[in-house]
Amino acid sequence: MALTIDAVKPVLDHAVINVMGKLDEAAAQYDRLGFKLTERGHHSLGSSNNLAIFGENYLELLGYLPGNETRRADLWAHPPGLTGLVFKSVDPDLVFAALKQRGIPAEEPMSFSRPVSLAGGAQDARFRVVRVSGEEVQNGRTFFCHHDTPELVYRSEWRAHPNGVTDIVEFVIASKAPSRTAALYERVFGAPLLTEVPGGVLFRAGTATIRVLEPSAVAERYADAALVSENGSDRMVALMFKVPSLEAPRTVFERSGIGYRPYVDGIIVSHADAANVALGFTAL
């Protein structure tokens, strides 16, 4: 099997927010925040979700229905909030082989599906994922997702959001040792990958930037809107979104009574109003 650099290319596919058994509450929150969510989906492995689809990537609210909390119990071991950093995969078998070759513990490709209701009837969206070993990532998961049926996920009718969001452009991890935390991704994707910035490091992932910062730098850059770990462990804490202008999100927030504040690149909503995740909006 020929391994190519594209097998493990850093391009963000989606971000996962773990909402546990509070799918209805989280979906209502994100509706008030101006996201047009997909209909509730139910995975063959037992979890359920609502999505907000953008241009190159998407947001997933992931949880479980009553009675399903013991299925995929590994997903619910992490604290509620941002728990999944997911990269695109062209070929999951190549990804697994490449990670193994680089000495990175990873789980073999896993397949699953969920029905999608469309005007012409229900169809199954199918996926194959390769997860980096849980021991490598604190308070969350990093994995690669291959869409066997991208046309059942990235649909144009699901991309129009009242808040104007067109893509996730930043994914933020708080770490007391940013270089240590980010070293995993340099092992995964190859060096040189990381760029030093005040308070931490970053790397590009398609249209998005993955930023790993010390908690104090997170607080400063994101106007104290993010929730960081109380025990000093790493935690995924914030997402930044691209909008054509700040007028649309401001209008949505003011109509919904949601507070927001300025931050270095735009405006930001506190984690308390967004299922434990700080959400920033920037007009790029």
Notable traits:
about 280 residues, alpha+beta, 2,3-Dihydroxybiphenyl 1,2-Dioxygenase, domain 1, 8-stranded mixed sheet, 16 strands, globular
Approximately how much helix is present in the residues?
Answer: 10-25%
Please write the string of helix (H) and strand (E) elements.
EHEEEEHEEEEHEEEHEHEEE
Stated plainly, the CATH topology of the largest domain is called: 2,3-Dihydroxybiphenyl 1,2-Dioxygenase, domain 1
- Uncertain spans, ≥5 residues at pLDDT below 50? none
Instruction: Write out the CATH superfamily name of the largest domain.
Output: 2,3-Dihydroxybiphenyl 1,2-Dioxygenase, domain 1
Q: Which structural class fits the helix and strand makeup?
A: alpha+beta
Question: What is the radius of gyration computed over CA atoms, rounded to a whole number of angstroms?
Answer: 18 Å
**In what order do the strands lie side by side in the largest sheet?**
2-3-4-1-5-8-7-6
Approximate shape: globular
Count of discrete structural domains: 2
What is the end-to-end distance? 41 Å
Number of distinct helices: 5
CATH architecture of the largest domain: Roll
> What is the CATH level 1 assignment of the largest domain?
Alpha Beta
Percent strand equals 35-45%
Averaged pLDDT, please? Answer: 95
Topology, number of strands:
16
